[in-house]
Amino acid sequence: MNLVLLMFPLLLMLVIAAVADVRNRRIPNWLTALVAVTGVAAAIVWHHPMATGWQAVAGLIVGLLINLPLFALRLRGGGDVKLFAGVGAWLGPANVVAVFVVATIVAMLVAIAQAIVTRRVGQVARNTASMAVGIVHGDARVDPAQASDADGYAARHIPYAVPILIAVATLIAMS
After folding, report:
1. pLDDT tier at 2 (50, 70, 90 boundaries)?
2. Which of 6, 41, 85, 156 is deepest in the core (most CB within 10 A)?
3. pLDDT 10s digits, 54-64
4. What Å distances lie between residue 37 and 15, 90, 111, CA to CA?
5. Which of 133, 46, 59 is nearest to 90 (CA)?
6. CA 105 → CA 35, 130, 145, distances in Å?
7. How many CB atoms lie within 10 A of CB 59?
8. Which residues of 125-148 are buried (b: 16+ CB within 10 A; e: fewer)?
9. In which band, very low, low, confident or very high, does the pLDDT at 140 lie, cut at 50, 70 and 90?
10. Range of the domain at 7
11. What's the chain's Rg over C-alpha atoms?
12. How many domains does the chain contain in total?
């Protein structure tokens, strides 16, 4: 059976998550839970080629663990972390790491484009430098109040469900 058809439920849930994330900057808990549960169920029932039952559980754990440090640094929201864990359940541990890398690159490119369009490249560079210094000193969290510039422009988080969707679609298309 065609991989796109097997992965269609995941792609559909990711489109719903991306729309919700863009509109509300939130991904509903019911949706992240549905992605995780259906990922494990699909691996067990359908025996799809992306992950076996154990690989689905391992992918869920890896998807969660690689995002927790970013959540602790306030670079990812809780919904993003839970959604990524669910994606791991569908894809397995190796593929979820590949999706993580691609999604992170996509998010970085979106952030750069957003900074250019809003003419905030200097502020983004200062925030990035501040975070780098914070990492060296053991505290890389960004306080949104300190991430504002003189005009009161606050740093906006990228709706991360969109880069996740792009990365998963890319992986499926290349498989």
Report:
1. confident
2. 85
3. 999 999 999 99
4. 17, 9, 31
5. 59
6. 23, 21, 26
7. 31
8. eebeeebeeeeeeeebebeeeebe
9. low
10. 3-174
11. 17
12. 1
pLDDT, position 175:
85
**Integer Cα distance of 147 and 132 in angstroms:** 14
CA 18 vs. chain centroid, Å, equals 10
Question: Residue 74: what residue type?
Answer: R
Q: Please report which helix (H) or strand (E) contains residue 160, including its range.
A: none
- Mean pLDDT (whole number) for 111-134: 82
Can you tell me which residue has the tokens 């996740």?
164
Q: How far is CA 87 from CA 5, 42, 164, in A?
A: 16, 12, 9
